[in-house]
Design goal:
The chain is built from 22 helices and 10 strands. The strands form 2 sheets. The chain has a 6-stranded mixed β-sheet. It has a 4-stranded antiparallel β-sheet with strand order 2-1-4-5, with no helix packed on it. Helices cover 63% and strands 10% of the residues. By secondary structure, it is of the alpha/beta class. The protein folds into 2 domains: 314 residues, Up-down Bundle (ABC transporter transmembrane region fold), CATH 1.20.1560; 128 residues, Rossmann fold (3-Layer(aba) Sandwich).
């Protein structure tokens, strides 16, 4: 049960000063709280004996009030320390969790659903933070504070009465062990269900246009209703066990009250304790009610925190498929790119997605990649991003194997525009500045002009400051592509990768963008995959892929002369262009 505290040892060591002070003051408050009942008991005994005076009564009242004020201020300090630690560990875990996600490769996100990761970053981290805050409070109160109160009852009042009153308490320990195991299992299932619900919500929101287009609103509502019902049932399963804690403790504490009161009155009549002792004892008995509840809360919190920490650690312990080598080689510039007999297969694939690819590209050259859908065009481009473990063969940059180059250095050379445009819920300006921090408006306009987006700015409500909405929902497909191109152009990368990044623009705009690339990227390497051959006619090298194999290679004129797939596709597109013009 307490393994969660052991696994959080790194945090307690880091914040040991905070917790030493907080726990010391918490224990000190527990000891000070024993004095008011004792003082009240002494006052009652003096009243019974008739020896009470105005001066002594004022003294008792002043002492009790003084104790309460001291307890108040000490309580403020320990609560600030312990619950401040709770907020701190939540911040640290969230930062660590997010930073870890930023290092993970695509295969990790193929195995883990976004909704489940969100559940771990919210509910699970919150449950762990409760463990180091409220959990530490219940741990101390259910052990040290309970022990101190029982000690005061036994040694200051009567050990016989105390022993009789605590007879029902072992029943609590037995019940807590049983309930704790059930809570751990059921809470894990509830959190998994919450992750499924998050994932469903994300899919429904991002695909709302498709849902409406196919008139699937009622079906999606029913699907969401079913999954929320599952979340409800699994959380109710947790609540049903959780609901046993308080009645069980109340029953045992009630039995302690009955035993304490009955046996206490008997001892008063036998003059073994005084009436003031019995009043003090009953006040002490009332003080152990919270520690009894704290035992139940402790089991509950520790089991929830343990289950949540297991889920968080499962993510944090995942290692990226691609990591920096221990001694990376420093490369000043990517003067050449060479693929030697490269064969690659995705981790989830059963066949080779690239087979025996050989290519050589010098700095400043442009590579065009064409082929049927699913032929491996994007896969070939992604080899340069080094997001997956390398297959067989060699991929060299400036003569150095890509695995020996630091990932940060590799990615700093590359400007990448993927097939699926990803824009952030910010303004057009901020999305473009993502490629170059704090870029000036002049720089932004240069990138926009290169992407042929300048004429569209006038159609946007606030120009550069127009919010694009989530994933660029307020922009058309062509506008999203050109904002993404501007983001890549503004960084002026050594290697520009365009993965079918011109598919949503018209032929005239495409020609303008290609001309801008040719004029402004002289001396820099560009790789373009496309279905429209007009986008790569100017390329120094063009390769045709089919099922991961290079079937044709050469310049535009050389490929036309081969009378193969390239010429057939080129002639078909020429006919289509003539018909549409």
């Amino acid at each position: 049960m307490f393994s969660v505290l052991k696994n959080l040892g790194w945090f307690f060591r880091r914040e040991k000063r905070r917790y030493i002070i907080g726990l010391f003051l918490l224990i000190a408050v527990g000891v000070l709280e024993l004095l008011p009942p004792r003082l009240l008991g002494n006052a009652i005994d003096e009243i019974v004996r008739g020896s009470i005076t105005t001066v002594s009564l004022i003294k008792y009242i002043a002492m009790i009030l003084g104790m309460l004020l001291i307890i108040y201020w000490i309580t403020y300090i320990w609560m600030h320390k312990l619950f401040g630690g709770s907020n701190l560990v939540e911040r640290l875990l969230r930062s660590r969790f997010m930073n870890h996600l930023m290092t993970m490769t695509p295969s990790f996100f193929e195995r883990n659903r976004t909704g489940d990761l969100m559940a771990r970053a919210t509910n699970d981290i919150r449950a762990v933070s409760a463990t180091v805050g409220f959990g530490m409070l219940t741990l101390v109160d259910s052990t040290i504070y309970l022990t101190v109160v029982l000690f005061a009852m036994g040694f200051l009042i009567s050990w016989q009465l105390t022993l009789a009153a605590v007879i029902p308490l072992p029943l609590i320990a037995i019940a807590m062990i049983f309930y704790g195991r059930a809570i751990h299992h059921r809470y894990s299932l509830a959190q998994d269900a919450f992750g499924d619900m998050n994932d469903q919500v994300l899919e429904s929101v991002s695909g709302v246009r498709v849902i409406r287009a196919y008139v699937q609103e009622r079906l999606d509502e029913q699907r969401f209703s079913d999954i929320t019902e599952d979340v409800y049932n699994k959380n109710m399963a947790v609540a049903r066990v959780d609901a046993f804690f308080e009645p069980t403790i109340r029953l045992c504490v009630g039995m302690s009250y009955i035993i304490g009161l009955t046996y206490g009155i008997y001892l008063v009549f036998r003059n073994q304790i005084t009436l003031g002792d019995l009043v003090s004892f009953n006040m002490y008995l009332g003080m152990i009610v919270w520690p009894m509840f704290a035992i139940g809360e402790l089991i509950n919190i520790m089991q929830r925190g343990g289950a949540s920490l297991e889920r968080i650690d499962e993510t944090l312990n995942s290692r990226p498929d691609v990591q920096d080598t221990a001694n990376p080689v420093s490369v000043e510039q990517p003067t050449s790119i060479e693929l030697k007999d490269v064969t690659f297969r995705y981790p989830s694939s059963t066949i080779d997605n690239l087979s025996g690819v050989n290519l050589s590209l010098s700095q400043g050259q442009t590579l065009g990649i064409v082929g049927r859908t699913g032929s491996g065009k994007s896969t070939l481009l992604k080899q340069l991003l080094h997001e997956y473990p390398s297959g067989s063969g060699e991929l060299l940059i400036s003569g150095v194997p890509i695995g020996q180059i630091a990932l940060d250095q590799l990615h700093s050379w590359i400007g990448y525009v993927p097939q699926e445009q990803i824009l952030f819920s910010k303004s057009v300006r901020q999305n473009i500045q993502f490629g170059l921090d704090n870029a000036s408006d002049d720089k932004i306009m240069e990138a926009i002009t290169a992407a042929a987006f300048q004429n569209d700015l006038g159609t946007l409500s606030d120009g550069l400051d127009t919010l694009v909405g989530e994933r660029g929902v307020s922009l058309s497909g062509g506008q999203k592509q050109r904002v993404s191109l501007s983001r890549a152009f503004i960084s002026n990368p050594d290697i520009l990768i365009l993965d079918d990044a011109l598919s949503a623009v018209d032929a005239r705009t495409e020609a303008q963008i290609i001309e801008n690339i040719r004029s402004e990227r002289a001396g820099k390497t560009t790789l373009i995959s496309t279905h429209r051959l007009s986008a790569i006619e100017h390329a120094d090298i063009i390769v045709v892929l089919d099922n991961g194999l290079i079937t044709e290679r050469g310049t535009h004129e050389e490929l036309l002369a081969m009378n193969g797939w390239y010429r057939e596709q080129y002639e078909r597109q020429q006919v289509e262009n003539n018909l549409s013009s």
